Records
---
Amino acid sequence: MAILHFSSSSLISKITHSPRRRTIRSSQDSIKTHKNLITTDSFSSFSLCPCGRRHFLGAIPFLPISPSSASTSTDALKRLRPPKPDWYEEFFAWSMNTEMESYEKEISDYKTKLFDNLVGKKTEKVLEIGIGTGPNFKYYSTIPNVSVLGVDPNAKMESYARKSAIEAGLKSKDFTFIHALGESIPLEDASVDAVVGSLVLCSVTDVTRTLNEIKRILRPGGIYIFIEHVAAEDGSLLRLVQNVLDPLQQVVADGCHLTRHTGDYILEARFNGGADIKKAYLSSLAYISSHVYGVAYN
Ligand SMILES: C[S@@+](CC[C@H](N)C(=O)[O-])C[C@H]1O[C@@H](n2cnc3c(N)ncnc32)[C@H](O)[C@@H]1O
């Protein structure tokens, strides 16, 4: 994926919404949103995005996949994400596999802290939405007995993801690739301990529906950890650039939107235990530098 490079100022904001504990943390600036404060403290940052489709699920009988939701899932795949040419999916998977190295280096401290939330709890079954080429596998290695289900509509991601899983030391039986959409996950209610998503809500067709699916499949007490690129500040030069590039980005980066307010969507999904959301500006991926990351509690 073609990316402009520049350095941005280092900032992180923290958004906290919790029905039980409506906490607001502040340090320097604060900006009022419709139902939360977004506060900013100093830190350093990163950024990016992209996406595709494939065959099916019957191959994993040990999973709590209901046949009815599996067929619903196939329908959803066709309806929400019409098939793309093989060459496009292959090219996109290849570019994600080859072009993200510097981004992954820059983001690794953030991811390490985020994935720490999975350690020491009963986290044996994790679903990753939009698993792509599997850049997050290395963060699962500290979690005992973990098995990872990776949902992705781009079948060409599977071989890259399998390779990443093995390189990270996961046994092949502990990774299952599921050809499906975040909007229609073919798993039973309350069937996973955690959901992980990185750079995926920019690409799904329906963000709200995807978040509702995450809530549905998470067990009570389960957590959703995320790191997503988002729209830059309203009125900023970066936002203007994003507005101009957004239509092109969707074409070249498999449906990726540059101007989504993903943090707001996560808050509006109203996870039972609320959500802690931080905001980061990262330097390695230019017009995709604004991010949110954090944890939502089911
Ligand atoms: C930018 S890539 C990110 C991949 C990976 N999560 C990462 O951090 O590198 C976006 C991924 O989301 C997948 N995707 C696109 N639409 C999706 C949907 N509706 N549901 C689930 N995954 C989707 C794409 O196929 C692609 O693998």
Note: Helices lie at 67-80, 86-99, 101-116, 157-167, 207-217, 237-252, 262-268.
---
Amino acid sequence: MNKFGCEMCKYKCTKKSNLDIHLSTKKHLELETLLKSNNGILPANTNTRKKFSCEPCGFICYKNACYMRHTQTQKHIDNTQKCVSSTPSELTAVSVDLMVQLLHQSKLITQLLEERLTTKHMDSKENVNDI
Ligand SMILES: [Zn+2]
Ligand SMILES: [Zn+2]
């Protein structure tokens, strides 16, 4: 089916004219330049670049070895320990505390509102009586 193609770009087509168009595309030319400058070795990570990122540090690299080296750095250890210190269990404890506080507050608010409503209600009753 695909008679023509560019092995380098994994490009396939059925018409020579299409291949000619492909050979003049920026994508193809860039890859060709890259190949030439790299002694004909196509970097494996050109298109399917695997990214390694370390969120706590905001660290990004494209090599596993590089990432592994990063994980050994003191900066990374410090950053990840900071993350570990806010473990879910601790977060839960904090939120339970907060919930209790909020509940207590909302109780007070409800009380206040009820008091107000009662007063208002009484007021309006008086008004109705006036009319
Ligand atoms: Zn190509
Ligand atoms: Zn890190």
Note: The chain has five helices and four strands.
